[in-house]
Amino acid sequence: MKKNLSTILLLFSAIFVFAQNPYKQNLVDLATITFPQKPATLDTLGHNSFQLIDSTAIYSTLTRELDSDQLLQIHSDKLSEFYDGTIKGFLDATQGKLINKKPFEIDGLRGVEIEFITTANPNLPDLRFARFILVNNTLITVYFMTLSENKQATQTATTQFLNS
Fold it and tell me: What is the pLDDT of residues 49-76, one digit of tens each?
């Protein structure tokens, strides 16, 4: 009973957190994403990043402009291979184990979404979701992290953030 009550409370807190002060963040004039509140802006090694940490999750975006050599290797028929390589690098860097992978499409642009788990850093949540989409010459990564036990409670926040 306590577990059910805790899950219900977490679900409501996630809903209220997202409903408090939604903030639409512009991502290098290519797209926007809605954070539950205004995120912090980071610039790391030429990557523009926005991040928000609340009591149940970490919301993050990263944009990286690809150079002309990288773009020449990516044709529409090779886009899946590009995303597979990006996912492999992402999983390798976090020592993650892929749970789910599915394609998505926004305004005719194809991307890929993954769900994975990692215990490499015990100070960070273990359950993670990421979306990758190539817009013009920029790779946009949308990233959501939470604890495995919060998966059901943060499902609404996860979906709203990744789909915004």
Answer: 999 999 899 999 998 887 766 665 666 5
